[in-house]
Write a structure and sequence with these properties.
By secondary structure, the protein is mostly helical. The chain is 80% helix and 0% strand. It contains twelve helices and no strands. The longest helix is centred in the N-terminal third of the chain and has 34 residues, at 2-35.
């Protein structure tokens, strides 16, 4: 009887070990695709990994990132986009709950909130402003080389700087103000930090050009926009950045 139990336990151990090895191999492939900005190819692999193990923080954070990206680039329905972003939010929150010290978890949570805010009411945008700022600050505190967090922080500063008088009044009246920052100068610092870490990622450069444009600093805006417009795109993000910079240059003619 004991021998039978030992044999069964040994078999179970081998099955679990084999499954873990399969997941590790699949994760390496999926993560590599993500780093190469091949979102469409990486997305179903992370869905598969989550079905196998939904408590792995790496699977959760990468999957959250890809739900945000996939929803943005490949889903046309605005309602469906929100569903993808909400899933990204849920996965990020679960990752934070499992490991609060995961910089990536805080980053992808802020990313999901930012996507949700693109189609949100002014009230919801303002309500989420503090949360996005906290999440990006926490991500950078945990990993100062996380370019994406600086990118989101830059967008946060620029968004707050562009708030209307009415929106600012709402912030002060109903939400007790926003955290320190929210200036164009802070946005520039954040985007330049992102560029220093990821100089080849064109979207950082586009956002810097857009910030200079919003500040009516057309000379700097043209320099950065022209640089991106002349570049060769290598992924969806690059293609979008190039198109946005071409449109920005048309506005400045």
């Amino acid at each position: 009887m004991k021998k039978t139990i030992l044999v069964l336990l040994g078999f179970v151990f081998l099955v679990i070990t084999a499954k873990a090895q399969d997941n590790e191999s699949l994760y390496e492939k999926a993560h590599k695709l993500k780093l190469e900005y091949k979102y469409k190819e990486a997305f179903p692999l992370f869905q598969q990994l989550l079905k196998s193990d939904s408590s792995n923080v790496n699977y959760l954070t990468d999957a959250s990132y890809l739900y945000s990206k996939y929803g943005f680039y490949y889903i046309s329905s605005e309602t469906e986009k929100i569903n993808y972003y909400k899933t990204a939010e849920r996965l990020a929150l679960k990752a934070i709950k499992l490991n609060e010290k995961s910089a990536d978890a805080h980053y992808v949570y802020a990313m999901a909130l930012g996507r949700i805010n693109e189609n949100a009411s002014s009230k919801q945008k303002i309500a989420n402003a503090k949360l996005i700022k906290y999440q990006t600050d926490r991500a950078i505190e945990l990993n100062s080389k996380l370019a994406g967090a600086y990118h989101i922080l830059g967008r946060w500063h620029r968004t707050v700087a562009n708030f209307s008088t009415f929106e600012k009044a709402m912030i002060n009246s109903f939400f007790g103000g926003v955290p320190p920052g929210g200036s164009f100068e802070d946005a520039i610092k954040s985007f330049k930090a992102a560029i220093a870490i990821e100089p080849a990622f064109l979207m950082h450069q586009y956002e810097l050009a857009q910030t200079y444009f919003d500040m009516d600093r057309k000379v700097e805006a043209k320099v950065w926009a022209s640089q991106v417009a002349a570049a060769t795109p290598h992924n969806e993000d690059d293609s979008k950045a190039k198109k946005e910079c071409e449109e920005l240059l048309k506005k400045m003619k």
